[in-house]
Design brief:
Length: about 600
Amino acid sequence: MILIFLLYFSNGLTLLINLKMGGKGKKKRDTPESFKEKGNSAFNMRDFSRALESYSKGLELDPNHATLLTNRASVYIELHRYEDAITDSAKAIEVDPSWIKGYLRMALALRELSRFHEAIDFVHRGLTIKPDFEELLILQKGIEEDLAIETALPLDHPERVKFDNLIKWLLDGGAQFPKLKLRFYSKDYRGVHSTTFIAKNETIVIIPRTHIITLEMAKATPIGQKMVAANLNLLSPKHSFLSSFILQEKAKEESWWKPYLDILPESYSNFPIFYTEEDKEWLTGSPFLDQVNEKIQDIEEDYNAIVEAVPEFAEFPLFEFSKIRMGVSSRIFGMQIDGNKTDGFVPLADMLNHRRPRQTTWSYEDSKNGFVIEAMEDIERGLEVMDSYGKKCNSRFLLNYGFIVRNNDANEYPFKCKLREDDPNLMTKRNLIDGSLSQTFRVQADEKENIFSDFLGFLRFVELNDISILPRIMEECQEEEQPGFKPRKIKPISLANERRVLQHVQKLAKNGIDLYPETLESDAQILLREDLTENQRNCVLMRQGEKQILDWYFKFAEQALALLDLERKDVKKAAKGSPYESYLTHSIIPLLGK
Ligand SMILES: C[S@@+](CC[C@H](N)C(=O)[O-])C[C@H]1O[C@@H](n2cnc3c(N)ncnc32)[C@H](O)[C@@H]1O
């Protein structure tokens, strides 16, 4: 009865459709094959939800249709639903063990979950059926490569044992990072990789509060308490406290933090404060050497201050303190726990290497009682998961982290601008800048950065001859928020002054370049060499970045000077599209006669 009604009903519907279509054409009856065709065309158009719907409808009609199963498995793989793809592939293999795509999709899905051993088993099973099936052969190669990386460190390798201990310790404490694994690139250089696809906005790490070392903990240690009591005036207090914590914990026979302490780098030889004299020679002429020496002195000063206040601290040699200090500066996280700002070590989170623009974001979340990292973009399986340490000049990366960012757009060069010793107004000018004779401007090769105009503003002050106009200038460059004379805010004064400013810039740039024994061109050649050590390469990249900035300023001054004698209309023409367009338009053109 029901069947008859259904037939009648479906015929009625066909009739209705035929009527609507003017009776033209006959509606084809849906079959597993027709759903397969529909699914395939949707799949080819990358409309995976429609493809999924069609294959699923086909499978409702024939649940044992091997092709529909493996086609749907393909859709699941595209949608990163690997477990579903495994279920469909398993069924396809079960209903038709000779259907080669069952093995292919199964291996693909398993691979995407980093289950490489199982994946390669299915590849082998597939190849016994069809030994020359190209897709399987390609997949086999890929999985073998994955396995080679995975098994590069034998299970009993000390580094792997350290990784495993850290992971166990974290998981036992309730940490969550189900899609991440640690990878060993070389001694003391490790990173974090995804074991499977990570979707944008997914939480990828939670490290519980119990496993975070905070500044407060460091202050509560026996040595920390004495440091607090001594009210030390340290140059880097938080770094010193945290270093003292690590040193004390390392000295204990049984530290609860051992799984974390063990993975901290042993050597910091890539950090410039530990460079050998030979390494440092590669930085001849670079102002960065001063920063390195200052850092060495600052650390020693803090160390001595601690030892003076807490004599037992001397049991830790300066060298050990310095190493851990670098460990702190390269791994510290600033965070807010229960509304209180603090700094600390966050195990595993500190294994993410730097990449900009940022790919992940992190913060301490009170609601989760832990430190949370989220993905800011989709991350495919196997890729390195990275964190941005910020937009920084290479001098900061090298000094505090021991590495260099290639083609870094945030590089700076410290121009030291001195008042002229032969300036008849030296004393007046000096008094206006708190008695100092110079100011340093860490400029970038970019006229849009504020530091560019600050630098030129200060040079206008240095090059000012007619001191009678000072009151007017001082009036003009007052800032509402911060009253007081700021020479760096001085706008162009006159053509003659601006000419001297540009000549001064050119001289500073030329003097800077002349300090290096090698030219920019020879640095480029040196970088092609394969025999450079990591430190040597970093030194060349460091000085190359500095020279590029010097070169930029030399050319800027040279080109701007050449325009000063032209007519306004010609300068306007030259300004268009020039890298100094804003400077020429706003600083030079207004100085030229109409
Ligand atoms: C927070 S730790 C990251 C984990 C570290 N790779 C490890 O194995 O312990 C920071 C250190 O990693 C290395 N590092 C981070 N990002 C890097 C990058 N983009 N290039 C080279 N080294 C990097 C530097 O040695 C840096 O001091």
